[in-house]
Amino acid sequence: MRRLIVTQGDTEPASVEQQRLLGKTCPSLYDLRNLFQVNVEEGRHLWAMVYLLQGYFGRDGREEAEAMLERHSGDADKPRILEAFNEETPDWLSYFMFTYFTIAMEISN
Question: Of the residues 4, 8, 11, 79, which has the fewest C-beta atoms closer than 10 A?
Fold first, then answer.
């Protein structure tokens, strides 16, 4: 259970890190608002995962939460757990393709 929480929690900030450049090139204010809302939700999910780790998994959970907050998307020394979240998405086409294939893989499993 702890490993699932850590992996899920690690994807939340990774998603925000991948999408951080997209705000500069949003096609409309509507798209910018939606991007911002997605990032807010990802932050809320991260908080929930850290809360669970620290509150219910003792010292190991606290260490896992700390390590999760030290990792960064694309970082050579401390990359995100899932390799897909270490890839750059510098533009909307890259982002759309990333989400398309991520969802397609989930559906096929």
Answer: 4
